[in-house]
Amino acid sequence: MSHTAQRTLMASPEGVIEGWMDEDAASSSAQLMGDGPSGSLVIDSREVLRSTARVVGAEFGELHVKTWMALVTIFVNDGLPEDGTGSSTIGELARTIWGADKGMGGGNTKRVVGALLDLYRAEVALPGFNIATGEAADGLSLSRLLSDLYVDEAIRQAFDLPGSLSPKDAGRRFGATRGETVTWVFNRRYADRLAQSELRRFDWSKAQQLRGTAMAMWLLFGSPRVPYRDYFGGGDPDLEHVWVPLTLEQCHALGVHAATDAARRRTLNQAGARVCAADPMFVAMEAHGSRGSQSALHVVRRRSHERSLLRPYEQTMQLTLTSGGQ
Question: N or C: less crowded end of the chain, CB within 10 Å?
């Protein structure tokens, strides 16, 4: 599969950057972050998430998932090279993850390099997919996401700064490397999968506003695998909703590991409020429950009239920026 395209990773006048991500990884981001039980998610008897998503060899957090999203976005915008190779400046990666106004500091730049090293060292299991064979699979099959990683010598030297330097001086020294090059090579099977599968299209300007559980819930409930139904309680024919029983295992699948039901509801309500504030597609994301009753998460959103999953080059050989969200 061969493509020629110019890099179009830039903000539109509205500040929107079109991003791309592996759908299984996007939906499973809550399971991949942290080291608690991953759980499975079943809605209306449909298994939306399996419990097989996990990471071995590194502790993943929000930054690791966003760095992964940035690598895939840049790889797609470079035309999905057949050899699986992507290249960027460290500054471009930081700006993609945090936005142009926050991505240039030396501290953020160093954090991105650390996340890249963890992505290279880690073994990742995605639900329903065996990276080693490129085929659907049950159970646990660990594979490396990246087969090679190159960082410019200036970045390496800055990352290995001795601890005797003050944080201010270390940040200034590392910030000076933001124009240096980073090159990565995706596992061959994974690169083929990106080229041959429908990918999640998302809005980076929204992703940059969300953190932790809120980001994971935004990615999950923006997935077409969630079985939304028409919602007649809001007076808008374009509304749809879904109820998610909040059993302990279901909460683990959402990345929530608080000890009590009330604390888990509180975490979900706080995260849901942030999602609704960042993305007007979501009208409500609220956890309901009381002592002695089964808690449940209610998600109400506006029906999307655009496909959130598609092959980036199925309609055009040149990526275009959109002003829409999902």
Answer: N
